[in-house]
Design brief:
Transcription Regulator spoIIAA; 575 residues; two-stranded antiparallel sheet; homodimer
């Protein structure tokens, strides 16, 4: 538990670990990173709150206390915690069924969702159950993120067009937008299209310009990342100067000035029952996204993160969000990369970012009154389109049809039936495919390669076999799902070789034999015995052999257990 | 498809296969077996109908047409299809929530359950999905059957006591019986206890007596198996002669005389929705029980059964039950063994049994008017207690704690929360345990055993290692559930060996690398590259290597793929 010379306290509350060696250099680096991330986070936080159907300030609140709590309990040095696109979408999907967006019940549901998510993550962390997230396979996650990105981008089109629309899956959203298409506000559309165009240009075109202008590589990258701030500034100014809000351009409007309020989630069991499933899904997705970002960044500096401790960090962050007017949060990709690139050295950078955002919440909120929602929507669209990546489909097709099926099903179900069903279906399908594969293992009759002690598949190689000895190699651990398959195959093979006197099961790739498989081996032994055929095992691994010795199988075995296949054939042939 | 020289017709309708070579000898053997099985089945069929909460005659009907259809479509030569204890209990549990036992709605629900079960089994068979039943592990089945046996035996106590009682789990049934204990009918209790005692004695004590009296082994076994008929005869006679029905002894009463009626299941979608889950569970349980009996018997004569064709046989039998006044059926253990022991050679024996039962339904039903329900309950209790076998718990404890957990959970949930939840929980738990196991595979750092080319675990053996080369052997196929674990472990190991220049992953037990694992390998490669460590693979299996060649992983790999670990270390050491 207390590995690498860390005390238990340092392990569970990592701030006591890195905090001891905090110095002036680290402070400077962290402060610089914090300023940059703060500037970037202001429009992003407002935008994601909008995506979740919540008042804009909740996006800011969700970035302040959670980021501090993560700094205390988390293990990544560069992760920036706060609202992210996919989790915001899942929040909207989960609470959209319970209350209408923006209503007081909706806000309480968002707080409660953060609370349940926090409790669930903490429990997973305390019981060291972080490995559960591994059941989300890479293709399923990639498919899910791509499909979510599409849904998010399409759902934001209503803000670009300035129309009302709703829906939780692609078809509903598209239909809703199409029926309202006639109500398009042309000024809003111009602002939106300009913002999208500018942001796309900033991402690709601005950096080369800055580099030519003589900025350093790192500085150019950071300035290019703050493109959203420029768009926010320009469109807000234009909207204010020309009175566009009076011409039907939707603006953010009044955002209360002040520090995050103290809030309480609901403790109604009914509401918990409605939200718990969504809270679990959203926590797992958020955790997977966060851990993969954290691992990527940690590896670049040869640092390590501890996934179970990450659960505690994220759990604390979500509880913080629940009690300070936020909504579910996790470690975001874009903000973390900026934080890392800007030179953040310790989690303290996150704390300074929180201070920056707190100042913004106190002072700057009146300035966003005239910020058009179309600008925020443009920010979201450009951000999430970078998540959309269909190349996974082609890769999966080439490499593995099973993974291809999983990724296609995940994308199709997420787009067609919503995010919650999509990710659940993805997990279930990949488990089913895995079980199906291992339930019909590769089995081959083998013979000796002339002049060697090697045994190979009779169908692929020119090998020496004996009519009396049938050797079957099975290339999989034996467990309940393939135990019957093994029996059937062996009976089939024996039925096709009526002169056989010895059946050898060669087990170099058997890493485990569970009780069902043991009973199948016993059944095989008994049935072969009834027909005067002896049953032998070869090349059983040490741990598997230890297990078999705990049962009475070996005492009933009609044949022997040989250390190697070669020894077995030598002895049995000479009889 | 048309293996072993069989035509497609012979494969799908096996009667065309064995029917061609049917001769006088086979006819004689089959007829003898049919007479014996018929005598045994009459009380058993009545008893199981009672257990399912259905009118007694439905037990007989469920044995007639289904047995004929199985004879046409099934592949087992000795399997006897009809009502069985566990499926009857599951029928009662499934339709007990929908209607009150014995009501017309209850009967229609039973027919519908048989119909849905038949359709489901046929679909599984046509699409060759019989392997799905393999996900019921041996310990889960054993635990489930034991727990079901207890529930059935306890539920029958009400008939022995002559009281009213109901409930679907152990607690409900026991509570219900206890509250009605004061209403015990003493004459019923005497009959019941006598019947139970006599039947137990018959099972163990009668055969030696018969053998001493000079009967042959086979004949003695068969006579001993017909003990239930004697009890039925004696108790019916006593009840009639002394007018016990007037003294409160519950009797079977009027059973309509006649052949099975034509009936229709319900086609109400609401009812289908209520029953479909139960139909699936019951079909799978029935199929597993039936196939294991059929396989055991077939093996004794070196015959083979085809599990997918068995699904079609059982599906047809259940459809037959649905349209001729029956209820869900499957291949029963007791009746099949009797059939086999009595010398049945072909499925025609089943057809003759059906004729025998049809005659019984036409002629003998008035004779069972005075048959006490306590006698039938005694028959059931004695039959199911042979299913109860707690030794599986001890075996599982010794052999594998994971299997132990699965069997205990199955028994506890079946007893405490009913059969449907019990079996579902058992399946889910065994899959979860399997996934958990394979999600944290055994991994070892290995070194060369001095003087050999073998590489072994550094912790277990005295081996030669190099500070620059770290070799990790992983003992499991790599897939999404363990991909992150692999990454974490390797990073941990590299972090603990800072002077490493080469990391070798040794894969002799890796039977598959799925796309998630491939991405993890790519991630490992990239991260090691970032720290100037080369990543190599050794002893990759042929099929796995074929797959890797479909990806661009090998072109990015910083190191090499070596055929053997020895070659790898030789080359890397010499650099």
């Amino acid at each position: 538990m207390a590995a690498n010379g860390k005390t238990r306290l340092q392990q569970y509350i990592p701030v006591f670990d890195w905090g001891r060696s905090y110095d002036r250099d680290a402070l400077t680096n962290d402060l610089v990173a914090a300023v940059i991330v703060t500037i970037m986070l202001i429009p992003q936080s407002l935008a994601y709150a909008l995506l979740a159907g919540l008042p804009a300030q909740m996006g800011i609140y969700a970035s302040i206390v959670p980021i501090i709590l993560y700094a205390i309990f988390g293990t990544s040095r560069a992760l920036a915690v706060g609202p992210v696109a996919v989790v915001s979408l899942m929040t909207a999907a989960a609470i959209g069924n319970i209350a209408s967006p923006g209503s007081p019940e909706y806000i309480v549901a968002a707080l409660t969702l953060a609370f349940l998510s926090g409790v669930f993550l903490l429990l997973l962390g305390v019981f060291r159950l972080g490995f559960l997230a591994n059941f989300l396979s890479h293709p399923v996650i990639a498919g899910f993120i791509t499909a979510s990105g599409i849904i998010i981008a399409v759902s934001q089109l209503k803000h670009i067009l300035g129309v009302e629309a709703s829906g939780h899956n692609l078809l509903e959203i598209v239909t809703s937008i199409l029926t309202h298409l006639g109500e398009t506000n042309w000024i809003t559309l111009i602002i939106g299209v300009f913002a999208i165009g500018f942001l796309f240009w900033v991402r690709k075109g601005l950096k080369p310009v800055l580099l030519k202008a003589g900025l350093g590589e790192r500085m150019a990258t950071i300035v290019a990342k703050s493109g959203p701030v420029a768009v926010v500034f320009v469109t807000t100014l234009v909207t204010w100067a020309f009175g566009l809000a009076g011409l039907g351009v939707q603006v953010v409007g009044e955002v209360p000035q002040g520090l995050p309020p103290l809030t309480l989630p609901s403790f109604s069991m009914d509401l918990w029952g409605d939200l718990i499933g969504a809270a679990i899904l959203l926590s797992v997705i958020g955790f997977v996204e966060s851990v993969s970002v954290a691992q990527t960044l940690a590896a670049k500096r040869r640092q390590r993160i501890n996934p179970d401790q990450e659960l505690i960090g994220l759990g604390a962050a979500n509880l913080g969000a629940a009690f300070t007017g936020g909504y579910p949060v996790t470690g975001g990709f874009a903000r973390s990369v900026v934080n890392f690139d800007a030179g953040a050295e310790t989690p303290a950078a996150g704390a300074y970012t929180a201070v920056g955002l707190a100042i913004a919440a106190l002072v700057l909120t009146p300035l966003v009154f005239f910020l058009p929602k179309a600008t925020l929507a443009a920010t979201i669209i450009v951000a999430v389109l970078s998540l959309v990546d269909f190349s996974i489909i082609g890769k999966a097709w080439t490499y593995s049809k099973a993974d291809f099926a999983a990724v296609c099903a995940t994308i199709a179900i997420t787009l067609g039936m919503g995010v919650e069903l999509g990710v659940t279906a993805g997990v279930v399908i990949s488990i089913v495919i895995h079980l199906y594969r291992t339930s019909r293992p590769h089995m081959a009759i083998v013979g000796r390669v002339p002049g060697t002690e090697h045994f190979r598949n009779v169908r692929r190689h020119d090998v020496i076999t004996s009519e009396k000895i049938l050797t079957v190699r099975v290339d999989e651990s034996l467990y309940f799902a393939n135990a019957h398959f093994l029996e059937d195959k062996i009976y089939d093979m024996v039925a096709q070789n009526p002169n056989v006197e010895h059946v050898i099961l060669m087990c170099p790739a058997v890493n485990d034999i569970d009780m069902s498989a043991l009973e199948s081996l016993e059944a095989i032994n008994e049935r072969l015995k009834a027909t005067n055929v002896k049953f032998h095992l070869t090349e059983i691994k040490g741990p598997v052999m230890d297990r078999l010795k705990c049962s009475d199988f070996l005492s009933h075995l009609t044949g022997k257990v040989f250390l190697s296949q070669h020894l077995a054939v030598k002895e049995l042939s000479s009889q």
